[in-house]
Amino acid sequence: MEPVEVLPIVALLAIVTVEFGGHALLKFVTTDHDRLGELRERFFRAGHAHAGVLLVLTLAYFLYLPRARYSDGLEWTFGTVLLGGVLAQSGGFFVHLGIGRAGARSFGTTLTRIGALAIAVALVALAAGLIREL
């Protein structure tokens, strides 16, 4: 199977998990508001929002990836780096929600930064491939 046939399916299924997270967040802020606390609520919102927006970005990415004319191996690599970066960046917010403290770094904030870097690598790789094909 081609990477641009499989990876968008992964992204679409991941969007379903974001929808479930939205339901959970709505429940917390409407019925159990005090349960999370301000810091955790902020990180829950940030993780949820980043996941949703970045997963939609992946769908656009996979439309353009074949135009860069990379080998299947590179398409798998860049697509996996992008999806991994999205999961790491948004997941880092949730990790910090669980273990972090206000005003302090944690493994979650490091994971968020690593995810952002992975997303940037994948986007630059796609841009380079598209420029090469002009």
Entry summary:
The chain is mainly alpha-helical.
Helix content: over 70%
Backbone CA Rg: 17 Å
Number of strands: 0
In whole angstroms, the N-to-C terminal distance is 27 Å
Shape: elongated
Count of runs of 4 or more consecutive helical residues: 5
General description of the model:
By secondary structure, the protein is an all-alpha fold. The chain has one domain (3-132). It is 84% helix and 0% strand. It has five helices and no strands. The chain has helices spanning 3-30, 33-36, 38-64, 72-99, 107-132. Helix 1 (3-30) runs antiparallel to helix 3 and helix 4 packs antiparallel against helix 5 (107-132). The longest helix has 28 residues, at 3-30. The chain is elongated, with a radius of gyration of 17 Å. The two termini are 27 Å apart. The model has no long low-confidence stretch (mean pLDDT 95).
SSE layout and pairing:
Blueprint: H1 3-30, H2 33-36, H3 38-64, H4 72-99, H5 107-132
Helix pairs in contact: 1-3, 1-4, 3-4, 4-5
Describe the structure using short key phrases:
134 residues; mainly alpha; elongated
